[in-house]
Each structure stands twice: as C-alpha cells, then as structure tokens.
Predict the 3D structure of the following.
Amino acid sequence: MIPEIHIEDYNYPLPDERIAKYPLSQRDASKLLCYKDHVITEKRFSDISDILPSDHLMVFNDTKVVPARLHFQRPTGAHIEIFCLEPIQPEEYVSMFAVTDCCRWKCIVGNVKRWKDDILNLYNPSDDASVKEMGLKAALIERQGETSIVEFRWDNGAPFSQVLEVCGNIPIPPYLNRETEDIDLERYQTLYAKYRGSVAAPTAGLHFTEKVLDAIKAKNIEIDTVCLHVGAGTFLPVKSSLVSEHNMHREPFVVTVDFLRKLRSRLGNVIAVGTTSVRTLESLYYIGVSCIEKGEPADVDQWAPYSASYSHSCEEALEALIGYMDSHAMSSIQIGTRIIIVPGYQFKVVNVLVTNFHQPQSTLLLLISAFVQGDWHRIYDFALANDFRFLSYGDSSVLFR
C-alpha cells in the first residue's frame, strides 16, 4: 500500500547562511554528527573510523561527475544553457563518451522558449582556441515537457568525453547560487570517482581522504563500490503536497557478481556511504525478487516496496540474482531504479549510513526519516543548534539503524 505522506511534515527552517557555499580547505575537517542508540554526539569526520563497527562491508558509489552544463548562443545573441541529463543515442554511457562526431542527450534547457529551429554555436567569449577547435554545435530535436532532446555535433573527431571536458562546466547544485569555480573541479568530485555519468556528486563521499580510508581499512572494514549515476532529479523538489504524486526519475546503476557474493556474505553488517549507495543496495533486493518471481531481473519501480508483501529473505533474493547472472555468464549487470524510500520502508540491506544534511521537503530527507524511524527532527535540530554546515559542501553524519 502506497503510504500517504504530506511533504509539509518534513520541513525545517534552513537559513541561507547555514548552507555551505564552498568546501572546507581539508576534506576530512568537517564536523560529524553521530546518531547511535537514539543518542546524538558531535565528532570530527577525520575520526570516523573510531565510530564505525569493525568487520563490516562499507559501500561507496564510485560514479564520476561530468561537466554536463554547456552554454550556447543564438545568432540573435540570446544565451541558451543546456544541462545534459542522460544519454539517448547512444544510450549506454561508455558508448556515449566514446562517440566522435554526433550524439543525442535528454537535457534541461534554459531559455528554451527562445530557441527556435536554429543551430547553436558554443558560447566562447574568451575565444579559447581549444574550444574553437571542437566546433561544438547543438540542435533542438524535440521538447518533452520539462526536458528536451538535443543533438550535439562537433568537428575534430574527439570523443564526447573530451568535448565535455573542454567545453562544459561542472554542474554544482543550484542552491549554491554561484557559478562554477576552479575549486569545484576538484572538490565536487570524490577521491575515488571512476566511472563518468553523474550530473550531481554523491556528496557523502566528498569528506573521505586517503588517510581516513586507510584508518577504516585498518579496522578490518572491507571497502567495495557500486556505481549509480546520479541524475538531476536529486535537485528536484517535491512540488505536490502528497508524496505519492511525486515522480522519481530513473537512475542507472552497475554492480558486479563478485560484489553481490560479498554483499550476501556480509548481510547484517553493511555500511552505506550516501543515499545513492542506499538506493542501489536496497534496490538489489527487489531485483532479486524479480528473478525469483519472473525469472529475470527488472528495473525497480518507484513504489515496488509498498505495493506488495514480500516473503523472500534478502539472502534468497541475492542468491536468485547471482544465479541468474551466473547462468547468463554475466560478470556485471546494468539496470535502473526509481525506488523512493519513505517512512514505513523496511530496510533489507543497510545497517549504518554516512550522509550529509539534506534540503527541507526533499525525498532525501524522507529517506533519512525512514532510516532513523522518524527521529530526524532531533538530529536536524541538534545540527542547527550546533553550527553544522548543510547540504552538498556541508558537514556529515553517521546514522545507526
């Protein structure tokens, strides 16, 4: 049964000055709120290894943010901003970033009403030679409500990954109310980012340094990764009063069969770094159930956790997914999820969560409330009263379920 939740019940006052506009000079210098056994304490992130339980599996999202924000100019002089959301043609990320002449993306287009049928040239006010050499152009193929299909063409035979590196900007969150700066090129990216595809960083991971990771490993905590490409939907507010009317965007992710075997052996002892890792890990249960009940894996629907009763254990679900992959000689699987985790959700996989502080009335705050069984008010009141910094570049928390 789909829960009836009013988003207004997940609001709190967040003054603009509490939003961290820039990262701290040291990644691991942030504050760390610890919530364990309903007790809240303040620590330093550099000491997180002292708090985490040993003999656990710690899961990171190793997606990499792409410079997905592009600025073009019409012959009339009007500026058009194009924000690439997800590849359409080619549809697969690795293939997309390898193409050398033409591709299509689903995009959010600023000033789209002022874009007619003309071909746009990239805006290049400094007359940068490397940008000019690309000869990047954009054509509007189709409007689809709030998004559009845009075709990009370029001249010099470079792969599209290089085109974006030369021509694009890192898409920092809109609530920072500033342009992308040099510091964002390094700091709006996790230390372990590997696979291109996200238009937003998995920000819980921004605090980790090599020193912190070494201390975690020294505590006999095993580290592994999943890869979920974070979409712009992470910034979209819940506009309807009833959460049941909110539409979650599909986000693709990849896991290996070796990771699934490791996860199966560590059930009950799993630490997730970030809400994207949580959504990936929890989605695996429902993908496994699909293997049991339908004989094959399928994307996870937004309300799948609430629309039926599930008698299968998490171990059985993972066994079924592993079995399917083995029988099809698959070393990894790429699949998608639209899962929404709201109060009332029954967690199957994750026991401990490392995460930042999220926006009022957001789906991420709903996830936090579900994880701490409604105790989010006390946690956020403590953070506000003790000068914690909020949102992407803000401070961190470690929450025990």
Summary: The domain at 7-65+188-400 is CATH 3.40.1780.10 (QueA-like).
